[in-house]
Amino acid sequence: MTGSADSVVSPSGSAGTPASVGTLVLAGTPIGDVADAPPRLAAELAGADVVAAEDTRRLRRLTQALGVQVGGRVVSYFEGNEAARTPELVEALADGSRVLLVTDAGMPSVSDPGYRLVAAAVERGIRVTAVPGPSAVLTALALSGLPVDRFCFEGFLPRKAGERLSRLREAAEERRTLVYFESPRRLDDTLAAMAEAFGDERRAAVCRELTKTYEEVRRGSLKELAEWAAPGDVRGEITVVVEGAPEKGPAELGPDELVRRVRVREEAGERRKEAIAAVAADAGLPKREVFDAVVAAKNAGLGG
Question: pTM for the complete prediction?
Fold first, then answer.
Protein backbone atom coordinates (compact mmCIF):
# COMPACT_ATOMS: atom_id res chain seq x y z
CA MET A 1 0.00 0.00 0.00
CA THR A 2 1.40 3.43 -0.90
CA GLY A 3 1.18 6.59 1.18
CA SER A 4 1.43 4.79 4.55
CA ALA A 5 1.72 6.87 7.71
CA ASP A 6 5.26 5.71 8.47
CA SER A 7 6.62 6.84 5.09
CA VAL A 8 7.40 10.53 4.63
CA VAL A 9 9.33 12.81 2.32
CA SER A 10 12.44 14.02 4.12
CA PRO A 11 13.55 17.69 4.07
CA SER A 12 16.25 16.70 1.57
CA GLY A 13 13.61 15.38 -0.81
CA SER A 14 14.06 11.59 -0.50
CA ALA A 15 11.02 9.39 0.09
CA GLY A 16 10.80 6.75 2.78
CA THR A 17 12.80 8.54 5.52
CA PRO A 18 11.23 8.12 8.98
CA ALA A 19 9.94 11.35 10.52
CA SER A 20 12.11 10.80 13.63
CA VAL A 21 15.40 10.85 11.72
CA GLY A 22 17.67 13.68 12.82
CA THR A 23 19.78 16.18 10.91
CA LEU A 24 23.52 16.51 10.41
CA VAL A 25 24.64 20.14 10.44
CA LEU A 26 28.09 21.09 9.13
CA ALA A 27 29.04 24.38 10.77
CA GLY A 28 31.67 26.75 9.48
CA THR A 29 33.81 28.29 12.22
CA PRO A 30 36.05 31.39 12.11
CA ILE A 31 39.45 30.95 10.46
CA GLY A 32 40.88 33.68 12.70
CA ASP A 33 38.71 36.52 13.95
CA VAL A 34 35.92 35.12 16.15
CA ALA A 35 33.73 38.06 15.12
CA ASP A 36 33.43 36.36 11.71
CA ALA A 37 31.36 33.54 13.21
CA PRO A 38 28.08 33.17 11.30
CA PRO A 39 25.08 34.34 13.36
CA ARG A 40 23.44 30.90 13.24
CA LEU A 41 26.43 29.19 14.81
CA ALA A 42 25.57 30.20 18.39
CA ALA A 43 21.99 28.98 18.02
CA GLU A 44 23.12 25.65 16.57
CA LEU A 45 25.66 25.14 19.35
CA ALA A 46 23.00 25.77 21.97
CA GLY A 47 20.34 23.61 20.31
CA ALA A 48 22.24 20.56 19.04
CA ASP A 49 21.75 17.22 20.76
CA VAL A 50 25.33 16.24 19.95
CA VAL A 51 28.28 18.49 19.06
CA ALA A 52 31.13 16.62 17.36
CA ALA A 53 34.29 18.74 17.55
CA GLU A 54 37.72 18.27 16.02
CA ASP A 55 39.26 19.74 19.19
CA THR A 56 37.04 20.02 22.27
CA ARG A 57 39.39 22.56 23.87
CA ARG A 58 39.12 24.88 20.89
CA LEU A 59 35.37 24.39 20.96
CA ARG A 60 35.34 25.51 24.58
CA ARG A 61 37.29 28.66 23.72
CA LEU A 62 34.94 29.38 20.82
CA THR A 63 31.78 29.00 22.91
CA GLN A 64 33.24 31.22 25.63
CA ALA A 65 34.06 33.90 23.05
CA LEU A 66 30.54 33.66 21.62
CA GLY A 67 28.95 33.66 25.08
CA VAL A 68 27.00 30.48 24.37
CA GLN A 69 26.42 27.32 26.38
CA VAL A 70 26.47 24.01 24.50
CA GLY A 71 23.13 22.38 25.13
CA GLY A 72 23.94 18.78 24.22
CA ARG A 73 26.61 16.15 24.53
CA VAL A 74 30.11 17.02 23.26
CA VAL A 75 32.27 14.34 21.61
CA SER A 76 35.61 14.51 19.87
CA TYR A 77 35.74 13.84 16.12
CA PHE A 78 39.21 14.10 14.61
CA GLU A 79 41.38 12.28 12.11
CA GLY A 80 42.46 9.65 14.64
CA ASN A 81 38.96 8.53 15.64
CA GLU A 82 36.90 9.61 12.61
CA ALA A 83 36.44 6.12 11.19
CA ALA A 84 35.53 4.58 14.55
CA ARG A 85 33.19 7.35 15.72
CA THR A 86 31.25 7.80 12.47
CA PRO A 87 28.92 4.79 13.03
CA GLU A 88 28.08 6.06 16.53
CA LEU A 89 27.12 9.48 15.19
CA VAL A 90 25.10 7.98 12.33
CA GLU A 91 23.10 5.92 14.85
CA ALA A 92 22.45 9.07 16.89
CA LEU A 93 21.18 10.74 13.72
CA ALA A 94 19.03 7.73 12.87
CA ASP A 95 17.50 7.95 16.36
CA GLY A 96 16.45 11.55 15.75
CA SER A 97 19.36 13.59 17.12
CA ARG A 98 20.51 16.87 15.67
CA VAL A 99 24.28 16.48 15.30
CA LEU A 100 26.46 19.55 14.82
CA LEU A 101 29.93 19.01 13.33
CA VAL A 102 32.59 21.69 13.85
CA THR A 103 36.29 21.66 13.04
CA ASP A 104 39.11 23.89 14.25
CA ALA A 105 38.56 26.48 11.52
CA GLY A 106 36.58 26.79 8.31
CA MET A 107 34.18 24.23 6.84
CA PRO A 108 34.14 20.60 7.98
CA SER A 109 35.25 18.05 5.37
CA VAL A 110 37.35 20.63 3.43
CA SER A 111 40.81 19.27 4.35
CA ASP A 112 39.24 18.55 7.76
CA PRO A 113 37.22 15.69 9.28
CA GLY A 114 33.68 15.32 7.98
CA TYR A 115 33.64 13.54 4.64
CA ARG A 116 33.12 10.07 6.14
CA LEU A 117 30.22 11.26 8.28
CA VAL A 118 28.52 13.11 5.41
CA ALA A 119 28.87 10.08 3.11
CA ALA A 120 27.51 7.72 5.76
CA ALA A 121 24.58 10.02 6.55
CA VAL A 122 23.69 10.41 2.88
CA GLU A 123 23.79 6.63 2.44
CA ARG A 124 21.28 6.25 5.28
CA GLY A 125 18.98 8.92 3.82
CA ILE A 126 19.69 11.37 6.64
CA ARG A 127 19.33 15.06 5.96
CA VAL A 128 22.59 17.02 5.79
CA THR A 129 22.66 20.80 5.89
CA ALA A 130 25.20 23.51 6.67
CA VAL A 131 25.81 26.74 8.48
CA PRO A 132 28.00 28.57 5.92
CA GLY A 133 31.07 30.18 7.37
CA PRO A 134 34.50 31.63 6.59
CA SER A 135 36.72 29.75 4.15
CA ALA A 136 40.48 30.08 3.87
CA VAL A 137 40.25 28.89 0.26
CA LEU A 138 37.88 31.61 -0.92
CA THR A 139 39.43 34.31 1.28
CA ALA A 140 42.91 33.62 -0.10
CA LEU A 141 41.60 33.54 -3.66
CA ALA A 142 39.90 36.90 -3.25
CA LEU A 143 43.03 38.50 -1.76
CA SER A 144 45.56 36.92 -4.14
CA GLY A 145 45.05 39.28 -7.05
CA LEU A 146 45.03 36.26 -9.38
CA PRO A 147 42.14 35.17 -11.65
CA VAL A 148 39.25 33.72 -9.65
CA ASP A 149 36.73 32.91 -12.39
CA ARG A 150 38.03 29.31 -12.53
CA PHE A 151 40.04 27.61 -9.81
CA CYS A 152 40.73 24.22 -8.24
CA PHE A 153 41.56 23.36 -4.64
CA GLU A 154 44.43 20.91 -4.22
CA GLY A 155 44.51 20.69 -0.41
CA PHE A 156 47.79 19.65 1.23
CA LEU A 157 50.65 18.34 -0.90
CA PRO A 158 52.49 15.11 0.04
CA ARG A 159 55.18 15.53 2.68
CA LYS A 160 57.84 13.53 0.83
CA ALA A 161 59.82 15.64 -1.63
CA GLY A 162 59.59 13.22 -4.56
CA GLU A 163 55.86 12.69 -4.22
CA ARG A 164 55.30 16.43 -3.80
CA LEU A 165 57.21 17.29 -6.96
CA SER A 166 55.39 14.57 -8.91
CA ARG A 167 52.01 15.93 -7.80
CA LEU A 168 53.02 19.45 -8.80
CA ARG A 169 54.22 18.29 -12.22
CA GLU A 170 50.81 16.71 -12.78
CA ALA A 171 49.27 20.17 -12.29
CA ALA A 172 51.85 22.06 -14.34
CA GLU A 173 49.54 22.49 -17.35
CA GLU A 174 46.40 23.26 -15.32
CA ARG A 175 45.04 26.59 -16.58
CA ARG A 176 42.80 27.23 -13.59
CA THR A 177 44.15 29.07 -10.54
CA LEU A 178 45.46 26.56 -7.99
CA VAL A 179 44.94 26.75 -4.22
CA TYR A 180 47.02 24.78 -1.72
CA PHE A 181 47.19 24.49 2.07
CA GLU A 182 50.69 24.12 3.49
CA SER A 183 52.49 23.80 6.79
CA PRO A 184 54.79 26.73 7.59
CA ARG A 185 57.54 24.18 8.26
CA ARG A 186 57.43 22.99 4.64
CA LEU A 187 56.59 26.27 2.90
CA ASP A 188 60.17 26.98 1.72
CA ASP A 189 60.56 23.52 0.19
CA THR A 190 57.10 23.64 -1.37
CA LEU A 191 57.63 27.02 -3.03
CA ALA A 192 60.99 25.83 -4.40
CA ALA A 193 59.30 22.71 -5.79
CA MET A 194 56.53 24.84 -7.31
CA ALA A 195 59.12 27.03 -9.03
CA GLU A 196 60.75 23.89 -10.44
CA ALA A 197 57.46 22.35 -11.62
CA PHE A 198 55.61 25.47 -12.78
CA GLY A 199 58.49 27.77 -13.73
CA ASP A 200 60.22 30.57 -11.83
CA GLU A 201 58.05 33.33 -13.26
CA ARG A 202 54.61 31.85 -12.49
CA ARG A 203 52.73 34.34 -10.29
CA ALA A 204 51.58 33.30 -6.83
CA ALA A 205 50.48 34.60 -3.45
CA VAL A 206 51.26 33.30 0.03
CA CYS A 207 48.43 34.14 2.41
CA ARG A 208 49.38 33.90 6.08
CA GLU A 209 47.26 34.17 9.23
CA LEU A 210 44.14 35.25 7.32
CA THR A 211 41.76 37.48 9.35
CA LYS A 212 44.13 37.36 12.33
CA THR A 213 46.18 40.14 13.91
CA TYR A 214 49.30 39.44 11.84
CA GLU A 215 47.60 38.75 8.53
CA GLU A 216 49.99 38.98 5.59
CA VAL A 217 49.60 38.43 1.85
CA ARG A 218 52.89 38.17 -0.01
CA ARG A 219 52.58 38.34 -3.82
CA GLY A 220 55.21 37.77 -6.49
CA SER A 221 56.76 35.19 -8.79
CA LEU A 222 57.39 31.72 -7.44
CA LYS A 223 61.10 32.40 -7.57
CA GLU A 224 60.70 35.58 -5.49
CA LEU A 225 58.43 33.86 -2.99
CA ALA A 226 60.77 30.86 -2.69
CA GLU A 227 63.66 33.20 -1.94
CA TRP A 228 61.55 35.05 0.65
CA ALA A 229 60.61 31.81 2.41
CA ALA A 230 64.08 30.22 2.12
CA PRO A 231 65.23 31.16 5.64
CA GLY A 232 62.46 28.87 6.91
CA ASP A 233 61.14 31.26 9.55
CA VAL A 234 57.61 31.85 8.18
CA ARG A 235 54.96 31.16 10.82
CA GLY A 236 51.18 30.74 11.00
CA GLU A 237 48.41 29.16 8.95
CA ILE A 238 49.38 29.18 5.25
CA THR A 239 47.36 29.15 2.04
CA VAL A 240 49.20 29.34 -1.29
CA VAL A 241 47.46 30.55 -4.46
CA VAL A 242 49.21 29.92 -7.80
CA GLU A 243 48.39 31.30 -11.21
CA GLY A 244 47.21 28.76 -13.77
CA ALA A 245 49.36 27.79 -16.73
CA PRO A 246 49.30 30.28 -19.60
CA GLU A 247 47.66 29.12 -22.79
CA LYS A 248 50.27 28.58 -25.48
CA GLY A 249 49.83 28.44 -29.21
CA PRO A 250 51.62 25.87 -31.36
CA ALA A 251 54.25 28.39 -32.37
CA GLU A 252 55.27 28.89 -28.73
CA LEU A 253 55.80 25.20 -28.02
CA GLY A 254 59.35 24.29 -28.89
CA PRO A 255 60.72 20.73 -28.79
CA ASP A 256 61.91 21.07 -25.19
CA GLU A 257 58.45 22.09 -24.01
CA LEU A 258 56.81 19.24 -25.92
CA VAL A 259 59.21 16.75 -24.36
CA ARG A 260 58.57 18.19 -20.91
CA ARG A 261 54.81 17.81 -21.34
CA VAL A 262 55.18 14.20 -22.45
CA ARG A 263 57.44 13.48 -19.45
CA VAL A 264 54.91 14.99 -17.04
CA ARG A 265 52.19 12.71 -18.40
CA GLU A 266 54.46 9.67 -18.26
CA GLU A 267 55.32 10.40 -14.63
CA ALA A 268 51.59 10.57 -13.94
CA GLY A 269 51.23 7.00 -15.25
CA GLU A 270 50.44 7.36 -18.97
CA ARG A 271 52.15 5.20 -21.56
CA ARG A 272 54.48 7.12 -23.86
CA LYS A 273 52.31 6.57 -26.94
CA GLU A 274 49.24 7.90 -25.11
CA ALA A 275 51.19 10.83 -23.67
CA ILE A 276 52.46 11.84 -27.11
CA ALA A 277 48.96 11.70 -28.60
CA ALA A 278 47.51 13.77 -25.75
CA VAL A 279 50.24 16.43 -25.94
CA ALA A 280 49.82 16.67 -29.71
CA ALA A 281 46.06 17.07 -29.36
CA ASP A 282 46.41 19.77 -26.68
CA ALA A 283 48.94 21.69 -28.75
CA GLY A 284 47.13 21.29 -32.06
CA LEU A 285 50.17 19.64 -33.59
CA PRO A 286 50.69 16.44 -35.61
CA LYS A 287 51.61 13.47 -33.42
CA ARG A 288 54.66 12.93 -35.59
CA GLU A 289 56.09 16.31 -34.55
CA VAL A 290 55.81 15.48 -30.84
CA PHE A 291 57.15 11.95 -31.44
CA ASP A 292 60.18 13.33 -33.29
CA ALA A 293 60.90 15.76 -30.42
CA VAL A 294 60.77 12.92 -27.87
CA VAL A 295 63.04 10.69 -29.98
CA ALA A 296 65.53 13.53 -30.51
CA ALA A 297 65.61 14.22 -26.78
CA LYS A 298 66.13 10.54 -26.01
CA ASN A 299 68.99 10.29 -28.51
CA ALA A 300 70.56 13.37 -26.91
CA GLY A 301 70.21 11.78 -23.47
CA LEU A 302 67.65 14.34 -22.27
CA GLY A 303 64.32 12.57 -22.45
CA GLY A 304 64.84 9.34 -20.49
Answer: 0.75
